[in-house]
Structures are given as structure tokens and as C-alpha cells.
Amino acid sequence: DGGITQSPKYLFRKEGQNVTLSCEQNLNHDAMYWYRQDPGQGLRLIYYSQIVNDFQKGDIAEGYSVSREKKESFPLTVTSAQKNPTAFYLCASSMPQGLAGHNEQFFGPGTRLTVL
Amino acid sequence: QKEVEQDPGPLSVPEGAIVSLNCTYSNSAFQYFMWYRQYSRKGPELLMYTYSSGNKEDGRFTAQVDKSSKYISLFIRDSQPSDSATYLCAMSEGMKTSYDKVIFGPGTSLSVIP
Fold it and tell me: Across all residues in chain B, what is the average pLDDT?
């Protein structure tokens, strides 16, 4: 089955800890994204990567870091510098825009992070 | 003014009703308009997308875009309890030679009551 997997489904973090959220896709998509979802707000872009070994900050990158060493994987680290990390985190991927004509994104099941 | 606005609901309808979900936007450069469905504690799934103005139908779902009014709609006919979810609108300019940023609405929560 082709798709996007995220792990873990639920994650609890103590204040001051860094945690890493996993995102893997086997859709052979070049581009991958991380979003944060909070109640009453649209998805907010944290980081995106259009190709291996390259990534760009989104709208709310402060307190987060990413890597893109493999096409299939785009892990997100939530650092202790992120002041309000409790949220639902969504990973997405998309095929090259030239094929679809636009940025058609496919989402993973999400990771709910709670800071204790 | 937010770039994309959407009534958060919740919207509650009886089974079999016609549902109308709407978004307004401010960026006249948006060309691609998408609707995602998100079940509780799950990731969004793409329902359908429309390019530019007009209607697009897929089974019980119809997407409508009115670019002159900067207004998009999703209609659900013969609504079912399984349609109970949050519906997110999303849109982008569709630039092929650079990054095509997608802007999402906050979502409308829909409950279809048996």
C-alpha cells in the first residue's frame, strides 16, 4: 500500500525536552511538508522540502528543525525553544507540481504532541 | 483579514439533507481550490479540487468556485452519518516553476444526525 506514515500517534514531552516526530512516505513524492494544526486555526506550515538535502522554513519554523537525508523520510524535531508545542502535527507529501499542475498534497495520520 | 475564511460551525444536519460548506478568500491570484475531509484525530484526505471558476461533481459531492466573488462552496447531497467530519478548504496559485504554497481554511465541523 502506498501512503504516508507518521509515528508515534501520541507523544508526551516534558518541558525542556526535544522530541522527534517521524514521517515516511512510499509514494515516490519529491516534496514533503510539516504542518501544525490547532483548534480553530487552519493548517500552519512549519517546514517544507522540495528535494533531498534541501528544506525551507515555513510560516512558523521557530523552535522546530528538520532534515531530509532520504527522499522517503522527513523527520521533525520539536525543540525546547518552541514555547507552545502542544498541537496536532501533520506530515504531507506531493508530486512535482508540473505533473499535477498544482500542489496536491497527501497527508499522513498525524501525531498528537502534548507537553506535560 | 485572513487569507482564507471559513465558518467553523459546528453544523448539524439530519441524514439525507443537502449540506453547503463555504469559504471566502482575499487573494485573487488563487487558481486551484481544494476540499479536504478530516475525520477526528486523523489526517485530512483530498476530496476534490477545481481549477479556476465553475462546478465539478463527484458522486454526492459538488464543488463550486465563483472567482468574481472570491467564494467557493462544497455541496453534499443525501448526506450520511459517515459524512460527519471537519471539512477544510484549501487553495493555491498553482505556480509551476516555483513553490506553490497552499493556504488552508480552519475547517467546518459537520455532524449528520441519523
Answer: 93
The SS3 of residue B14 is strand
| Side chain identity at residue B89, one-letter code | C
Choose the closest CB to B106 out of A41, A48, A88.
A41
In tens, the pLDDT along B66-110 reads: 999 999 999 999 999 999 999 999 999 887 666 788 999 999 999
Do residues A109 and A5 touch, judged by C-beta distance below 8 A? yes
- Main-chain phi, psi angles of A52, to 5 degrees: -55, 140
Write out chain B residues lying below 8 Å of A56, CB-based.
99
Separation of alpha carbons B46 and A18, rounded Å:
32
Q: Provide the terminal-to-terminal Cα distance of chain B, rounded to the nearest Å.
A: 37
Chain B nearest-CA distance from A24, in A, is 14
**Rounded Cα gap, residues A20 and A5, in angstroms:** 14
Look at B96 and A103 and tell me if their CB atoms are within 8 Å: no
**CB–CB contact B46 A109 (8 Å):** no
User: Alpha-carbon distance A52 to A109, whole Å?
Assistant: 22
Q: Tell me if chain B has a CB within 8 Å of the CB of A50.
A: yes
pLDDT single digits (tens) A16-62? 899 999 999 999 999 999 999 998 788 999 999 999 999 999 999 99
A34 CB burial (10 A radius; 0-12, 13-18, 19+): buried
Determine contact, residues B106/B91, Cβ cutoff 8 Å: no
